[in-house]
Amino acid sequence: MAAAALVTENFKFVSLFFKSKDVMIFNGLIALGTVAGQTAYSVFAFNCPCASGRNYVYGLAAIGVPALVLFLVGIMMNKSTWDLVFECRLRKCRKLSGASAFALLGTIIGRAVVAPLTWVVISLLKGKVYTCALSEFVNRSTLENFPSDQGSEVMAKLPCQASGPAELQGFWNEIERRLKYESQLIGWLLVAGMSLMVFLILCMKRCSSPLGYLQEDYWSQYRSNENNLFERTAAVHAQLLAAENVKRFFGFVALEKEEKEQLAEHQSASPICSTEWNRVTGVYLYREKNGLPLYSRLNKWATYSLENNVEAMEKEMDVLS
Fold first, then answer.
1. Which of 29, 49, 52, 164 could be joined to 153 by an S-S link, Cβ 3.0–4.6 Å?
2. How far apart are CA 13 and CA 63, in angstroms?
């Protein structure tokens, strides 16, 4: 029982990544966008230097640098990244166990690697970059009737057929076929390995989740609706508060018709203190109160606000799980 409880705790964060259909659709769109970007780069921008020593460096840069940039962008665009940063800055991560932190980092990295992995896989399946990078390392002794006095400098020029020796052009098709075979084999092995890993994580998630499938689906819908409503309401609240301050300064405020209707409907917007913002911001794990689920930090805050017990709220809002 203790082992089962430990596994359940460790994979609570992992379940957040895979339970949302919106997340999977979003990842699919990212992958498609990456495929389009890689294809455009391969057609319009990739230009093998065809020089010994430079081919390999250029090939690594053509695969590695865009993948690294996409990975960092994925990290920065993930809301969970900044929730974790906020948690460590404000609460010093004192309530975040090592296992939970590891699982949360896993979900952040899991979403961030979609684009870079797609870039790497597509590059390998096309084979153009791999062929450029490793052309000078082909074992010349395995090529029938290849001149023994030709070195790696000549091999490096073969991807640019116009710059290579004319008598060696007939060997290029065989060299290109070998390198593309290796490149595509590595690409498919990478696809198979990642697919197997995703499958195993999904299996572990299903086995370790404290919630049933229907409740997980409801939790996903709740979080999506809460985020959408929160962002829309925050935008209107900020606009109304700004309108009030501008009106105090100028004596009037220039509003569009729709904005005037919103102002008339809501009348005014009161500033929200930093303490309340901090209570609803940060890392969250699923929790229950008297058997009733608390689906988010905002849900937890609202539940304890009804009791009007500040001491209980302060203690509970500092708890992750």
1. 52
2. 31
